[in-house]
Amino acid sequence: MRLVVAAAILATATGWVPQVRAQIPATIPDRPQSGATYDPYGRWELRAPEDRPVETTRLLRVEDGTPFYEKGDYDSPAVESRLLPIIKGSNLPAGAGPKSPYLPGTNLRFAYHYLIDFWRAWPQAKVRGAAGESRTAAGAVAQRLSRAAVFADPGLPKAAVDTLFAQADALYQAVLKMPALQRAQGMALRGSVWMTRRKDIAGVEVYSFRLVIGAPALHLATPGAKQGSDGRWHVPEQGHNAGIAITSNIPLRGGPAWGRYHGTQVAFLPDFAALVVAGDRPTHVSEFRGGGGKQVENPRFFDPARPKTDIQILTVEPGASSPIEARLAHQGSLSPDTIYGRLIAASFLPDWRPLVDRLNSPGAPRAQ
Questions:
Q1: Taking all residues of the chain, what is their mean pLDDT, rounded to a whole number?
Q2: What is the pLDDT of residues 287-324, one digit of tens each?
Q3: For site-directed labelling of 319, which of 113, 193, 205, 269 has its Cα 20 to 30 A away?
Q4: In terms of C-beta density within 10 A (0-12 exposed, 13-18 middle, 19 or more buried), how is residue 228 classed?
């Protein structure tokens, strides 16, 4: 009881809240009780409580593919955007923050739902603002990865470098299919790739890439910003930007998948990430040979019989430009048309598993 009171006092005084990780169930039942499709590598609770219906602000009109809702009762970036239905008497969009939907079969809320759902429903939505503003200007988008932005560990075979580059470029193209990223209002997009060797605990070696898609914000008054012949703006390298990190063949050290969202497994690394496990080996196993105990990283996850470039596991992780921005996303206060809001949607809208299967197919480039 004293610990609970102390935690409440700390939260009130500092704004600190326990990490979402604290929601992880202590045990994993044999199967979910809710009737959801069973994922043997997921986290399942006994049942998922249901939220009651709520009254929200009305959609007033749609302008150039962009919704415009009634003003909510209180202020937040999400409310002020007028892009979302807001729960009456609050500053919370429907299906956001503490009202986020549960991952099927669990009691774990998926806080990114309202952002992904917006861009699924309104793919042609635009960033509102006056012409000539930095937030509405179109930024330059690199349509393909550049070999000049590849950083490979010395000694990696050329065939492996070529294969990893082709895989990373295919995944980059999948991200760019989102119309809002092609328009790139208020941001630029470019990718870099790092390549290395990795091993599981048993010592099985594979080749891995990390594709980082940087999305620096446009500031047209910044020295060095210039407009290309196509009308799009180029900006110089900046400090920390929002982005997406897509990583192949990295052991999943944050625990098993939490569940599934629209068929995509969700991991926590240390924030929500899309996950693909392209093999028949679990990412985690019981710590005791006879079963029981906690789930630990599978020491023999990588299959030595497969080509080293095969994508046996893939994570897609959107990253915020600041801790404040990350907190707003979880609270339900982030506007969908922010750079980070668009990148979150771009991380979860693609159907990653078929693409990974195609990159692993016998006809695709592969290397040992």
A1: 84
A2: 887 777 788 888 899 999 999 999 999 999 999 999 99
A3: 205
A4: exposed
pLDDT of residue 51: 64
Reported residue count of the chain is 368
- Of the candidates 284, 296, 297, 194, the one whose C-alpha atom is nearest the C-alpha of residue 245 is 194
* Per-residue confidence (pLDDT) for residue 197, from 0 to 100: 94
What is the distance in angstroms between the CA of the first residue and the CA of the last residue of the chain? 57
Identify which of 240, 202, 261 has the alpha carbon closest to the alpha carbon of residue 325.
240
Q: Per the structure block, which two tokens stand in for 270?
A: 């240390």
Task: Look up residue 218 and give its two tokens.
Answer: 């446009």
pTM: 0.84
CA dihedral 226, 336, 115, 175 (to 10 degrees): -20
Report whether 28 contacts 295 (CB < 8 A): yes
Q: Is residue 147 classed exposed, middle or buried when 0-12, 13-18 and 19+ CB atoms within 10 A define those classes? A: exposed
- Specify which residues 248 forms β-bridges with: 314
3-class DSSP assignment, residue 360: coil
More confident residue, 181 or 51: 181
Number of Cβ atoms within 10 Å of the Cβ of 246? 25
